[in-house]
Amino acid sequence: MKRNDEKNQIRFGLIFLLGYTVLGAYLNRIGALNILSVFLNDHIQNSLLTVIFYWSAFILLFIPIYWLFLRSIFKWEWSLDQWGFGLKKNAWIGIFFSILPFLLVMLQSNKQTGVSTRSLPVFMLFFESYARIAEELLYRGFALILFKRIFQKTGSSTLWAIILSSALFTLMHTHKPDQMLNLFIAAVLIAGFTIWSGSISFALILHTVSNGGLICGFFTASFFIIMALLNYKMKKTANNSMHPVRRQLH
Fold first, then answer.
1. Domain count, the chain
2. How would residue 109 be classed by pLDDT, with cut points 50, 70 and 90?
3. Domain containing 218: what range?
4. pLDDT tens per residue, range 115-142
5. Do residues 125 and 219 touch, judged by C-beta distance below 8 A?
6. CA dist., res. 172 & res. 147, Å (int)
7. In this structure, is residue 210 part of a structural domain?
8. What is the sign of the dihedral through the CA atoms of 206, 210, 213 and 219?
9. Which of 91, 111, 66 shows the shortest CA–CA distance to 223?
10. CA torsion angle for 20, 24, 30, 36 (degrees, to 10)?
11. Which residues pair with 199 in a beta bridge?
12. Which SS3 state, helix, strand or coil, does residue 199 take?
């Protein structure tokens, strides 16, 4: 990669990451979605239109993250391994631990865990997982990659990546001092485990199961499996294209 290209990526990435975090923190603080819901109920009599407008706004909030994810892969040539969708070495430990949130919820099925979602339609659970996947892609995927690149010459790039990504994740989710420390510690542990395992699977599953329950977890697990298989397929295709003589021999 050319040095100028990497600088441009870092510059763009920082602007995107900080801008999205500030916007998300502000929207969370004012309760933007609740305000939108009240506004729509007061001004639109048709319940179907209200639902369409509300969920359209919800979807639009996270589209930029998925766009960034695709841009980094197809334009910047960041690998899915870097994003945590690899299947080597410690990644299988991360995948194994991803099963634990499912087990905990099933063992405590008689208790309320996270957001009560038993009565919600499946499409709402899908959008819940859609949102949590986006957050994990941004903070346990993109932010970790970005900060490791920024501090790669310091000798402590991993530490900086864990601390800064966790701090931004915390600031985006809460402005209450009594909640910040606990959330920051949890974010640090999850980010550290993500880097150590090389897999984003545990962070994805834990976040969605905690917020939306088992069905959201299954949606998220499906997303991870698809991305991991796509990563495997892309690497296999790349290896085959690099060894045309080997293909002819077989």
1. 1
2. low
3. 3-240
4. 444 556 888 889 999 999 999 999 999 9
5. yes
6. 17
7. yes
8. negative
9. 66
10. 90
11. 85
12. strand
With 0-12 CB in 10 A as exposed, 13-18 as middle and 19+ as buried, what is 63? exposed
Q: Provide the residue type at 204 as one letter.
A: L
| Sole residue written with tokens 């980010």 | 191
Tokens of 120: 């919600």
CB count within 10 Å of CB 155 equals 8
Alpha-carbon distance values, 157 to 41, 142, 143, 150, 163 (Å):
48, 14, 12, 8, 10
Q: Per-residue pLDDT tens for 16-44?
A: 999 999 999 999 888 888 888 888 888 88
5 token code pair? 């290209």
User: Nearest CA to 160 among 118, 202, 197, 192?
Assistant: 192
3-state secondary structure 54-90: HHHHHHHHHHHHHHHHHHHHHCCCCCCCCCCECCCCC
For residue 112, is it within any domain? Answer: yes
Cα 188 to chain center, whole Å?
15
C-beta of residue 54 within 8 angstroms of C-beta of residue 40: yes
> b/e map of 119-153 (b: 16 or more CB within 10 Å)?
ebeeebbebbbbbbbbbbbbbbbbbbbbbbbbbee
Contact 24, 172 (CB under 8 A): yes
User: What span, in angstroms and rounded, lies between the C-alpha atoms of 191 and 177?
Assistant: 21
Count of Cβ atoms closer than 10 Å to residue 209 Cβ: 26
Listed in sequence order, the DSSP H helices in the chain are 3-30, 32-43, 47-74, 91-97, 99-107, 122-136, 143-150, 157-173, 177-197, 201-212, 214-242, 244-249
